[in-house]
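DATA SHEET
Item: assembly model
Revision: 1
Owner: S.N.
Input lines:
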Amino acid sequence: MSSYNNTARLTEARRVAIFGGTHGNEMSGVTLVNLWMKNSDEIQRKGVEAKPFITNPKAVEKCTRYVDTDLNRAFTPENLSAPGGDELPYEVQRAQEINRVFGPKGSPDAYDVIFDLHNTTSNMGCTLILESSKDHFNLQMMNYIKKAIAPASCLVLLNEHPLLKYSTSRSVAKHPVGLEVGPQPQGVLRSNIFEAMRVILKHALDFIELFNEGMEFPSCTVEVFRVSERIDYPRDANGNIIAMVHPNLQDCDWEPLNPGDPMFQTFDGKTIHYQGSGTVYPTFINEAAYYEKQQAFVTTRRETLVASAIRKA
Amino acid sequence: MEQVSFPPLSSVVICGGTHGNEMTGVYLVREMQKQKVDKVGSVSINAVMSNPRAVEACTRYTETDLNRCFTDALLSSPITDSTPYEVRRAQELNAQLGPKGSNKAVDMLIDLHNTTSNMGLCLIFDSIDYVTLHIFKYLQSKIPSVPVRSLLLEKPPSEAYSLDSVGKHSFSIEVGPQPNGVVRADIFNIVKEAVDHTIGFLQEFNRGGTFEGGEVEAFTVVKSVDYPRDPMTGEITAAIHPQLQDNDFKLLKRGDPMFLSFTGETVKYEGEELYPLFVNECAYYEKKIAFHLAQKLTHKFPSIRVKKD
């Protein structure tokens, strides 16, 4: 079709999993997956085997993020091959089980696509999380979803940072896709957030069906926000936080943060300003689960990626 | 109404972390302890972290909800090895700040809470108390930036179950919306302002100022509504309808949407006109409450002044 880009021929994406409850208190995914496990009509597509799955049932039962350790950080090579059986932390055992069923990670037998459903307390709206800038299948899917829900917005966060990227549940698949929708408190189910996630998945599955039927998707560009830096809260010598996200930055995910802009406010009322060298786009601003991970927000930089034309092989 | 006089209000306790994941109170108490705030004019101030174990774990409670442990029955129950931590802690707090109902109890106890519901700034009272009604009216006039409302629980002292029932004149400050585990600067600033104004009120009161009587509107819970649930599993089958979500204190009328089921049906409200509050509060899922319904009543109160010896 296009004169200088070859169309990439990719294997069809037949085996698709939808993960909910990777964090047991992120309610949209828990609710959607439970719904679809009872009645999967909504997620059926021709040529697609879509499997809904609760990844962390104990955490879901307790309505907590995790029991022993964060499942969404647990899929490291060390963990996946660790001996020890029941002695291992619960989430490491779960990671090994998930890797057996949906992987093995990195092998030709792994699931084609895994959608991992998450919520955030940050005002991120609908966000798709991409783990590789070279995953043309995912880039095309994300382009399709963005166009399908326009004028509503769905942004793409790319986390390819060598130090800040992490081993997610979805990373077991050939094409891992994170869905992050907020703001929603942990343990709470908001109707608008639930329905927004549902709509994104609908379009994602439509894309896979069209692709499997042989549709060619021409080369396109996709705007992404590439993770750049993790910014922690200011802390005292004992590690206690001494300031909060500034009111001017709170809820301003994806908006430009310029050097000199207010960033934190101390408990006694002083402003701390952003001292970076250029404009960045912060996100995951004031996510509840990240206080313990030393992260008040991440900075990102805007980038345009080119996706090759793709077609089923 | 004839003016009422009260002895000076000179001991105030600010409590935070009664629920360990309601972060405004946790950080405000920590900051007050760090600044070693202990006296402002005629008012001595003590900042207390109510449930340190729950704060450490950033969870509402460890074994049982501390803010339900202050009934007379629980405060006098014998302590055994199997007594939950929070029941023990309630008795400790009662000894330190009370005893509830006695003359030794602190003059005022302000308990700081957050809610995931869109309730703005809400003062919660166990019963009609002219001092705290005056503080409510005072805060309404001093804080124009958020709605300031009040909820009256109308519990007789023996049944009053919350921490604030320990003080002689007490109330909770409930502010939302804020997720559990998160501290928002805008909410922190409002709560700090409310605490500072309250202390200002007490100083003026102790100095001999007269506060003119008047009337205020307060909400009183009439009933609670649970989520629609699957009769077999007990799992919820609907979410708060988008038209009710975030509309705490907005009159709910017959025919208004209440829930939107996961299969797309709207469940409508069929009862009498009432005001919803605590709409979609995280901690109430386990208490089987989607929201409370309240009526709005007007309360008249007299002018008050400090008792001159």
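QC remark: Chain A has a mean pLDDT of 96.
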